Amino acid sequence: MARAGLSFVIARVSTCDRMEETVVAELIRSVYDEAPISYGRFGLHDIPGYGRDVVQETEHGALLAEPEGISLGALELVSPARARLATVQLEAWNAEPEDEPGQPWAEAGRVLYWSPGGIVAVSGMGYSPTGQKLLLGPPCFAYWLSAYIGSVRSEPASWDPGDIVAVEERWLLRFWPVADVAGPALRGEDDSGYMARMREILALEPGTAPSRPQAWAALRPHPQPDTATAVMRFNPPEPGRATVGHPAQADSASETDGGRITVSSVDTDDDPPLVHEVLGDLLYDVLGNLPQNVWSWSRSMLEDYATQLRVDRRIGRELNPDGTPTLVLEASSVRTPFFGAEPGFSGRAWVWASEENGHADVLSVDREVIARDRIRQNTLFTGIVTILRKENDFVEVRAATQAEAARVIDVERLRG
What are the start and end residues of every segment in region (Disordered) (predicted)? Predict the structure, then answer.
């Protein structure tokens, strides 16, 4: 496939494209999802919606991106067969795969995808997403996205058995990191807190290259990945939502595995039976309180919420492959350089503790004592952390790695 349209970007990331020649390409993680196709298209977008729609829509194979072959956290994919449903396999790699996927896959386009949040999902135009998500890697990274189209399932049309229509089309989307663009993003940030024009953000400096994948926890596979993640099933009779089927859950880790601290306020004596039936053990892993009106939710609403909790918990584990100790805080206790307190982002946390070494295993990076309350015998500590999960205005955090903390320290120096 010709890629002349990518010359603008390639000239800026030529050294990035060679990133760490000694790194062996490895599939970090993958998920399966489904998206209805409307008007011959379905969408790919960043979570939780920090991307920007393509302004000058240009075809790069089956991918619609800017003329230079770049996308700022959102793009659309065109179905050549104009099928009804896209079954999508999303893959995150630590480097460019050495081999093509082979049969039955055919390359359908490649673009440079700038991911503000490091997490992506697919959905149909005008349809609610299923809740499935893929952790690409660190936020504010540029990733190559290669798309492939596989087999197409057809069947006789309901209005005319002699007319054959495409029903289901298989897609494979592969991502791998090419550059850390946190610096350019900061220089392009506007007053509203969103990013400036795409070309300015992706105008990478000559010689820009990402750190080795091992420097970023999000670019390393979990040694014991979840074997029972959500499997999405789109339900055509209900165009406003999708339903979810779950395989049997693998044995979950204990509450204290890896030093994890949980916060939950669930009164088991008063919970409606339906909430217990649908959420099950998820009730005891919720951060903070359950949503206020959860007791009046329908079964389908509870199933969607259970899917969200399962997927978020899986991503939280993927962001903590070493199983380091974690802490649950109010989201307002953490300040991040980009956007807000969202999974994958690092920032500075402020926490009161009753002991001088309180939370030392989590607030260990750039740890400082800010104040001491002699009357209440409490101490205010600060340290740099990375957010693993966010639910109900609470976040679960771990100590940031060196590469993650460097971003926060750089911003603090820039902003004085």
Answer: 236-269
Contact yes or no for 80/149 (Cβ under 8 A): yes
Q: What is the pLDDT of residues 359-372, one digit of tens each?
A: 999 999 999 988 88
Report pLDDT digits (tens) over 389-403: 999 899 999 999 999
Q: What pLDDT is attached to residue 66? A: 81
Q: Which amino acid is at 63?
A: L
d(C-alpha 290, C-alpha 283), whole Å: 8
E runs forming strands in 222-332: 231-233, 243-245, 326-330
Structural domains for the chain: 4-220 (2.60.34.30), 247-318 (no CATH), 326-414 (no CATH)
Task: Give the contacts of 227 (CB within 8 A, at least 6 positions apart).
Answer: 250
Tens digits of residue pLDDT in 106-138: 999 999 998 989 999 999 988 888 889 999 999
Two tokens, residue 336: 């991040």
> Which H/E stretch holds residue 72?
strand 70-72
CB 95 within 8 A of CB 50: no
**Residue 207 burial class via C-beta count within 10 angstroms: exposed 0-12, middle 13-18, buried 19 and up:** exposed
307-325 tens-digit pLDDT: 889 999 999 999 999 999 9
Q: Is residue 145 within 8 Å of residue 178, measured between CB atoms?
A: no
How far apart are the C-alpha atoms of 333 and 381, rounded to whole Å? 11
Give the integer Cα–Cα distance in Å for 320 and 129: 26
3-state secondary structure of 131: coil
Helices then strands, counting H and E runs in the chain, come out as: 6, 20
Spell out the alpha helix ranges (H) of 152-253.
Answer: 182-188, 198-201
**C-alpha to C-alpha distance for 388 and 317, rounded to whole angstroms:** 7
- Residue corresponding to tokens 């089927």: 245
Burial of 126 per CB tally in 10 Å (0-12, 13-18, 19+): exposed
Q: Are 411 and 402 in contact (CB under 8 A)?
A: no
Question: Which whole number is the average pLDDT over 198-227?
Answer: 68
Q: Round to whole Å and give the CA distance between 373 and 273.
A: 45
* Stretch 90-108: mean pLDDT: 91
